[in-house]
Amino acid sequence: MDPINLFEYETLACERMDPVAWDYYQSGAEDEVTLRENRAAFGRIRLRPRMLAGVGVADTHTTLFGEELALPVLIAPAAYQKLAHTEGEADMARGASAAGTIMTLSTMATVALEEVAAAAGGPLWFQLYVYKERALTEALVRRAEAAGYRALVLTVDAPYLGRRERDIRSGFGLPPGMIVANFAGHASADQPGVDPGASGLAVYASAKMDPTLTWEAVDWLRAVTRLPVLVKGILTAEDAHEALAHGASGVIVSNHGGRQLDSALSSIEALPAVVEAVAGRAPVLMDGGVRRGTDVLKALAIGANGTLIGRPALWALAASGAQGVERALGLLREELRLAMALAGCKTLADISRSLVKLPADW
Predict the structure, then answer these.
(1) What mean pLDDT comes out for the span 44-66?
(2) SS (H, E, C) the chain
(3) Is 256 a catalytic residue?
């Protein structure tokens, strides 16, 4: 029987993946407090449905930066997707496109950005880290532009990688024959390796990525591209103000899936203050803990323009490639459609803050 929700894809993925790769995807930082809270916080939000609204069939379509999407759920950037499936990011892109939404490709992809663009059949965004050697980052921007990517997502919450103890125990690194494909042939970029007693990824990131970044990096990126730049990793109103002041076209509320600063705010808990700070001047998206259509509904009611999923998309990829990704997104869309109808919302525009009751301490 096919999975009937995203959690059942998690079970399938666990059965099919190498245990070291599984721990890499599932791990959070240190005691994994934020990892757990990303999910638990959704359960503390209550819905206030309205009756006799004459909804009929709810419509989940939305538009972001001129792209019409079948649902307000995008694929978050995630590294090393060939660890989940032999086709890796290419199949993730195929599944996202078939479902009518956008995949965000990671800098640390195991399929080159040009190959992913050729496979996709739909719009793509490209996620960026800023390397110490900025020419490497600028070269990625130019390649993404040439390949037709529609927006850039600048991740700002990882000046260093969080202490992911599962990866340290396993000495996580890419297995033989697997590389960060966007840097194939770039001797100055090297590749993450296996490092017993340490996370190979953390060692690589510390050596290559720039931990001294300031908001000037957003200014710099805006100066080298005409693509929209979204800033990912925002958890406070103060940083949302800064992002827009430096020319960001949108912000993504995210704590990196609980993988960076442990005990940081859950993403959904941080969302209300960021939405208030942005005040409709730019799109606000969020990721972290989204597993159900009701989670998407709650985020939209608080004021998000959309959500992203990371781990659930990887589970679906591991379970059955592009078909799994398409089906998982379809399940989430149907859950959202039903939740909207039961809440009295025919379109996304009908979803308002009055639909949710937030915890008093938020």
Answers:
(1) 97
(2) CCCCCHHHHHHHHHHHCCHHHHHHHHCCCCCCHHHHHHHHHHHCCEECCCCCCCCCCCECCEEECCEEECCCEEECCCCCHHHCCCCHHHHHHHHHHHHCCCEEECCCCCCCHHHHHHHHCCCEEEEECCECCHHHHHHHHHHHHHHCCCEEEEECCCCCCCCCHHHHHHCCCCCCCCCCHHHCCCCCCCCCCCCCCCCHHHHHHHHHECCCCCCHHHHHHHHHCCCCEEEEEECCHHHHHHHHHCCCCEEEECCHHHCCCCCCCCHHHHHHHHHHHHCCCCCEEEECCCCCHHHHHHHHHHCCCEEEECHHHHHHHHHHHHHHHHHHHHHHHHHHHHHHHHHCCCEHHHCCHHHEECCCCC
(3) yes
